[in-house]
Design a protein that fits this description.
Blueprint (H helix, E strand, L loop, with lengths): L22 E10 L2 E7 L8 E2 L2 E3 L6 H13 L1 E4 L2 E10 L4 E9 L1 E4 L7 E7 L12 H9 L6 E6 L2 E7 L1
Parallel strand pairs: 1-7, 6-10
Antiparallel strand pairs: 1-2, 1-4, 2-3, 2-9, 5-8, 6-7, 10-11
This protein binds the ligand Nc1ncnc2c1[nH]c(=O)n2[C@H]1C[C@H](O)[C@@H](COP(=O)(O)OP(=O)(O)OP(=O)(O)O)O1.
Pfam families: NUDIX (PF00293)
Cofactor: Mg(2+)
Keywords: Hydrolase, Magnesium, Metal-binding
């Protein structure tokens, strides 16, 4: 039987009690010496944008293992002192969904290095380039940086954020 998907127009069109993302994923932000380590993403979802390093969880992997592996793969460094900070539930109107778990790290081993997935970029904490990032980042990233609750739900049509709600 074919499953029919009705494109939601707002968050209230979605049954969040039954919501299960197609993909679990992570994002990690290394924050050191009042600077934040971001990437220019070269491929995958959000290619061309600035974001934290991260990606989709692999079978058998914990969230933390995924977060560490993605930073290692994308920037050739190992994040240290990882802390879980919250989660973002993203629903796209085309039916795709991704559940992103947020981590911070206060240090790292190695040297941030460009890979075929990402270019490392350091920014002062008061100069984060939100205009080059996913639209939702300006909603939750400032809260996360202040140590506040930052979990939320977001509805997207491609790159356009249609609706959001912090939890
Ligand atoms: N809206 C929004 N804001 C902030 N960050 C994100 C989104 N949507 C997202 O998907 N993301 C993040 C979550 C993940 O970290 C990446 C998407 O994963 P991707 O890099 O495509 O996954 P990989 O497993 O690394 O894919 P490959 O390129 O290796 O196939 O973006």
């Amino acid at each position: 039987m074919t499953e029919t998907f009705f494109a939601p127009k707002s968050l209230t069109d979605i049954d969040w009690t039954a919501w299960q993302a197609k993909d679990p994923a992570t994002l990690t932000f290394v924050i050191k010496n009042k600077k934040i380590l971001l990437i220019r993403k070269k491929r995958g979802l959000g290619a061309g944008k600035i974001n934290g390093p991260g990606g989709r969880q692999e079978p058998g992997e914990t969230r933390l293992e995924c977060a560490v592996r993605e930073v290692q793969e994308e920037l050739c460094i190992t994040p240290l002192n990882m802390q879980y900070r919250g989660e973002c539930r993203f629903q796209f109107v085309d039916g795709y969904s991704i559940h992103v778990h947020l981590f911070t790290a206060t240090d790292y081993e190695g040297t941030p290095t460009e890979t075929d997935e990402a270019i490392p970029l350091w920014f002062n904490l008061d100069a984060i380039p939100y205009e080059e990032m996913w639209e939702d980042d300006k909603v939750w990233l400032p809260l996360m940086l202040q140590g506040k609750a930052c979990s939320g739900r977001y509805l997207f049509d491609n790159d356009t954020m249609l609706d959001y709600q912090l939890e």
